[in-house]
Automatic annotation (TrEMBL):
Keywords: Signal. GO terms for cellular component: ATP-binding cassette (ABC) transporter complex; periplasmic space. It comes from Micromonospora violae. Gene3D superfamilies: Dipeptide-binding Protein, Domain 1, Dipeptide-binding Protein, Domain 3, Periplasmic binding protein-like II. One of its GO terms (biological process) is peptide transport. This is Oligopeptide transport system substrate-binding protein. It comes from the Bacteria. SUPFAM superfamilies: Periplasmic binding protein-like II (SSF53850). PROSITE patterns: PROKAR_LIPOPROTEIN. Residues 149-168 are annotated as: Disordered. Pfam families: SBP_bac_5.
């Protein structure tokens, strides 16, 4: 979902192919003195959970986690292959056993040194299912995960509970010395080093294990270029430069305030008035007639990102269990019309399950993404129709109302279903409902890749008990093919196997790809230079005033 930071030394392994470049910068030379003690205000939304890396799966909290922590590897802003960050080296001879050496002398924000045990302890905590880390399944490659992680056998509403794990720690993790640890995977996995820049794999300080995770997450201690100052719910998160940070991507400014908005139009007004220094995505109201270009001039930026908008189904609701119904809904949506009339051509109609900017993604493999209302009607009849109201939910604190209204209207017009869209006030509440399996209708979803490989578009979303498989979709054939793909000895073999898994997903339509993101951003007049990372978020270490 979230990646950050610029590149340093190369990983000592073959890595995934580069993404299409998505970084950008504005012209002009910043004044060093102005930057050194300067501050910026950036747009944000209330995070769903306290800020624990392995329990943060959404972008509101995710980008803040990315700023507070530095991982073993990082993803360049220009979309290139992953590079080492905190890792000195990552070595393997067989893509099964990895020896990871970290750089000596780096610190957490509480002054303690980052050691190899901080990675091992953090990964073990996340992989132990009773701890409830939403990103726990990201450690499924590691030997012993089947002993530390168990699942609820009959879903969240069933009477049974997940059996207790037989082990508390992953057998595939071993501390060698203060700067070195060894990772043994259950099977050779070529993509494993590519994943290590994702926030699930961040180290945790010893202090984390002396308190409740939610207490730590309200006052997080990371090891990144900025440290936490304060958090006022639905208002402001304050961050400041970590002066003891000694890796390459040091801050050029001092303070970053993340203002938590409930209305994108209010944020845009602040941007135009120079009261907000960066807004990642301008509201759809600013797209008509390229109004945002007129409003912002050279303060505006346009880029593409490896992100896709979806409609997700609560498959745990029996009304949405039939794949024919789900395919009917998908075929009734005119994606081109939404792109043209709602987004004025700034978004592209989705036609594949993984964003085509992602290494290993196959373009055009979503047969359910076609607009075919006649076939949709036939499938709906075969599924026995739909009784009652179909409500499409979205979070109302970002600019989703127009396109969600359009989706609901198309379903109503083309299928005769009593459909409408309804906003949930905030993203945090919306996500809490999703994670509690309380959704009673299809709902807005999106996927911003966590790391540059197609594996990230399959395992978290479509494998049983995947970390972001929020609708509880399950297909044993998909699981088996994804497991085969994950354990492939080369990236090429892995990508081919994932393509077969996606063919099965396409038959089931567990969700609906709607559009590929294009991104229109804006910054204030005081920012003289900035870069966007490869998923379109501001790289705060690049900002000059």
């Amino acid at each position: 979902m979230r990646v950050s930071k610029r590149a340093t030394s190369a990983i000592a392994l073959s890595a995934a192919a580069a993404l299409v470049a998505s970084g950008c910068s504005s012209g002009g030379d910043g004044d060093t003195a102005d930057s050194a003690d300067g501050s910026i205000v950036v747009h944000g939304v209330q995070p769903e959970n306290p800020l624990v890396p392995s329990n943060t799966t959404e972008t509101g909290g995710g980008k803040i986690v990315d700023w507070l922590w530095t991982g073993l590897v990082e993803y360049p802003n220009d979309g290139g292959a992953p590079r080492n960050a905190l890792a000195e080296s990552i070595n393997t001879t067989d893509s099964k056993v990895f020896t990871i050496k970290i750089k000596a002398g780096t610190k957490f924000h509480d002054g303690t040194e980052v050691k190899s045990k901080n990675f091992v302890d953090a990964w073990n905590w996340a992989a132990y299912s009773p701890n409830g880390a939403q990103n726990g399944t990201f450690f499924s490659d590691i030997e012993g995960f089947d002993k530390t992680y168990t699942s609820d056998p009959d879903g969240p509403d069933g009477p049974k509970k997940a059996p207790p794990p037989s082990a508390e720690k992953l057998s595939g993790l071993k501390v060698i010395d203060e700067q070195t640890f060894e990772v043994t995977l259950a099977a050779p996995t070529a993509v494993f080093p590519t994943k290590l820049g994702y926030s699930a794999f961040m180290p945790l300080p010893d202090a984390f294990f002396t308190q409740k995770p939610e207490e730590f997450g309200r006052k997080p201690i990371g090891n990144g270029p900025v440290k936490f100052v304060s958090w006022a719910d639905n208002d402001l998160i304050k961050l400041t430069r970590f002066d003891d940070y000694n890796l390459r991507d040091k801050m050029k400014i001092k303070d970053v305030d993340v203002k938590l908005y409930q209305d994108d139009n209010a944020a845009y007004a602040d941007l135009l008035a120079n009261n907000l220094d960066f807004m990642e995505v301008v509201p759809t109201s600013a797209l008509a007639g390229d109004k945002w270009k007129t409003d912002l001039g050279d303060r505006g930026r346009s880029t593409v990102t490896p992100s896709t908008a979806f409609i997700a189904f609560p498959i745990y609701d029996k009304r949405f269990k039939d794949p024919k119904l789900r395919r009917a809904v998908s075929l009734s949506i005119n994606r081109q019309e939404i792109s043209d009339k709602i987004f004025f051509g700034t978004r592209k109609p989705a036609d594949s399950w993984a964003n085509p900017l992602t290494p290993g993604a196959k373009p055009g493999n979503c047969t359910a993404c076609k607009f075919d209302p006649e076939t949709a009607k036939t499938l709906l009849a075969e599924a026995g129709g739909f009784t009652g109201e179909m409500v499409f939910y979205y979070n109302a604190d970002s600019a989703h109302k127009d396109w969600m209204d359009a989706v609901a209207q198309q379903v109503k017009t083309n299928l005769g279903i009593n459909a409408r869209a309804e906003g949930v006030p905030t993203f945090a509440v919306f996500r809490q409902n999703v994670n509690a399996y309380k959704m009673t209708g299809p709902y807005r979803a999106a996927w911003q890749q966590d790391y540059p490989d197609v594996e990230n578009w399959v395992n978290p979303l479509f494998v049983t008990n995947g970390s972001s498989n929020d609708g509880l979709y399950s297909n044993p054939e998909v699981d088996a093919l994804a497991k085969q793909a994950s354990g492939a000895p080369s990236l090429e073999a892995s990508h081919e196997a994932f393509a077969k898994a996606v063919e099965k997903v396409d038959q089931d339509v567990p969700s609906i790809p709607v559009y590929f993101y294009g991104q229109q951003s804006g910054h204030s007049e005081k920012i003289k230079k900035l870069e966007l990372n490869n998923v379109g978020e501001i790289d705060i270490t690049s900002v000059e005033l």
